[in-house]
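Q: Could you fold this chain for me?
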Amino acid sequence: MRHWKLPDTHNVRDLGGYRRLTGGTTQWRRILRADNLHHLDAASCHALAEAGLRLVVDLRNERETGAEPNPFRDNNAIAYLNVSLFEALAPIALLTTPFDMSQRYRDALDHCGEPLAEVLSFMAAAPDGVVVFHCTAGKDRTGIVAALILSLAGVCDADIAADYALTAKAAPLLQRLRGRSLAAGADPAHVERVLASDAETMAAMLVHLREAHGGAATYLRRHGLSAHAEQLLVDRLCR
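A: Sure. Below is the predicted structure, expressed as structure tokens.
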């Protein structure tokens, strides 16, 4: 089940089921990517806990987490980690000029290596069970982290880009973000550029990851992910 159907969120997706270049596939119910979990009600939080949730990694900044707190932040049974990633990938209302999203992703790789490695290190060290990581839309910051994880696991660029593009199917989420941004006075054309999740955008980032940084493993190792943590993370998703 790629999409986890929860009534109060729209972009919770499983990273399982992708073919690995070295053989086999990534496993289901190990690592999930998601949009903002603030909207989850008690029943949905309970459903995730019953499914084995052990760690929630929130990639939003202090302004976002203050306005829309994470429901797992004070949960004694489930670990919670907040690592703010790349301010320029924050919500649409905070972005005031048109831009090339693929360039923003390349900038994120160039300037956010340490926090990205920190996020993956915490995932690798999490107790057995399900890990979920998320931002606001579950597309940009979440998309970069998902791409790095899947690349480490040996998933091909085309499948990683296709996984990124699935956010386009989250119509209720996109409509909510679109409406909020337009109400705040954002330029409509700019809003559509920010909300787009074309596979080509992620494909361009993956080319930059390989050509400028030597690929996911080399990049993350350089910024602090140990070889042991890398193996733990791959084992979590693939064994």
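A (continued): The chain has a mean pLDDT of 92.
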